[in-house]
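Thread: Newbie trying to understand structure tokens

Hi all, I'm a second-year student working on a class project, and my supervisor (Dr. K.) asked me to get a predicted structure for one chain before our next meeting. I've only ever worked with sequences, so writing a 3D structure as a token string is new to me. If someone could post the tokens and maybe explain what I'm looking at, I'd be very grateful. Here's the chain:
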Amino acid sequence: MAHSTGELTSPTPPFVRRDLNQGAFDLHRREIAVMSVLPPTVSAPALLGSYDEDGWVALVLSDIEGRHPGRAGDGSDAHAVLDAFATFPLLEPTQRARLPRVSDEIADEAHGWRELTAGDAASALPAWVRDHLGPLQRAADSAPAEVDGEYLQHLDSRADNVLVDAGSRAWIIDWPWAGVGARWVDGLMYLFDCRVRGETVDADEILGTHPLFDGVADSSIDAVLSAVTGGFFAKAGRPAPPDMPTLRDFQRTEALAGSAWLQERWG
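---
Reply by user tm_fold:
Sure, no problem. This is what the structure looks like when written as tokens:
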């Protein structure tokens, strides 16, 4: 990644993301495809240009000067980030056809509970989780239907994919995983990320007051939390990839954050 020194003109200096790594080619191409159809109302950098020739793939994006949210650790950026997710549009049928559906992604995560109970892995789960495996599985099974929808979703809504500028506006960056589903999924997963990072945030109060979650039932929230929590517990029990030795520990941290949130919500 590098800042451009070329002669492209824009309100701010452009940012160039380029890669000669074979594994990154498809991700960059997917990001180009998504960003080329984003309307200007979406709180995301503008795609100024792209290059895909001679074994190189590059994106030229408007530069956003900002910081990642959550630095203060007090939840003060949460509403700005959720406001940014609320700019994501209802997609046209031709646009939806090119993107993966959130319902398919969450179905894979929901299967985690069955993977855990099919062997001995359930014995390593926290006591509260073991005692609630039935309700957790039933909630997770309903998740694909709960997240189905026709809105653009980012699907990697962590703090490191958000920048907050000097005016406290949040911008969503890094778009290769975008999909289509219910408009509130990214917002919920950002609040999940806040809890994983240990940020002090009243996530349930925000769920009840921010317009992004208007009309969303508690059971829908619980279904998604249960699905992703089961997915993280299942992944955490698998062997670590050779080049990512700490991945499974982090996924267990995510799973524990999800189960703790559900325990609070269910009492």
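A couple of things are worth pointing out once you decode it. Confidence is low (pLDDT under 50) at residues 1-11. Residues 78-266 form a domain with the Aminoglycoside 3'-phosphotransferase; Chain: A, domain 2 fold (CATH 3.90.1200.10). Feel free to ask follow-ups in this thread.
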